[in-house]
Amino acid sequence: MSSADLTLDPDSQKRLMALMTRHQRQIFAYIFTLVPRRHDAEDLLQETSVVICEKFSGFTPGTDFVAWACQIAYWRIRYSRQKFARSKVVFDQTVLDAVAATAGTMLPEIDARHEALGHCLQKLPNRDRELVLTRYEPGSGVEEAALRSGRSLEAAYKALTRIRKLLFDCVSHQLATGGAP
């Protein structure tokens, strides 16, 4: 931690922790739209979090914390672009700026979709929910999900196709009805 962290009064520290805990997923989603690999996005989230802590005394309470934090993330990404120069996919600054602007405006929609997906996942039978969650666990895949669920690989693929359709329909319905369960 930097010395700037230590100068925050206890109330500011509590506000910072509450804001970071509540919005870290949104900040990560924003970063991940702008960098090619999840690992890089995770590293940039950590770097961004450090800068947020260092600059939090300059944050104006009552303003949009996520927008403020995403602006910090954007500048961290620009600063770190040379790391990504070796990547197979490298966007020029104009493309990066356009994606950043679009991602920033989509955060509320992404949040609503994520909330709806969580609700829809809870409606699935346990076996189906576990199959989906295992499939999308970091380092896992369909093979692991099939093994853990006791399904053949072919049955797992068929089940996942069916479950994805159910989830898509459920999320679409929830968003169309204003998020009402």
Write a brief caption for the model.
The chain has 181 residues and is mainly α. The chain contains eight helices and no strands.
Describe it for me?
- The chain is mainly alpha-helical and 181 residues long.
- Helices cover 77% and strands 0% of the residues.
- It contains eight helices and no strands.
> Which second-level CATH architecture of the largest domain applies?
Orthogonal Bundle
Do you know the CATH topology of the largest domain? Rna Polymerase Sigma Factor, Chain: A
Number of helices: 8
Percent helix, as a range, is over 70%
What is the 3D form? elongated
Distance between the first and last residues' Cα = 42 Å
Unreliable segments of 5+ consecutive residues? 1-6
Compressed to H and E, one letter per element, the order equals HHHHHHHH
Beta fraction of the residues?
under 5%
CATH superfamily of the largest domain: RNA polymerase sigma factor, region 2, helix turn helix motif
Structural class: mainly alpha
Q: Gyration radius, to the nearest Å? A: 20 Å
CATH class descriptor name of the largest domain: Mainly Alpha
- Overall average residue pLDDT: 82
Defining traits:
181 residues; mainly alpha; Rna Polymerase Sigma Factor, Chain: A; Arc Repressor Mutant, subunit A; 2 domains; 77% helix; 0% strand
What's the arrangement of secondary structure elements?
Elements: H1 3-6, H2 10-34, H3 38-55, H4 65-84, H5 93-123, H6 126-135, H7 142-149, H8 153-176
Helix pairs in contact: 2-3, 2-4, 2-5, 3-4, 5-8, 6-7, 7-8
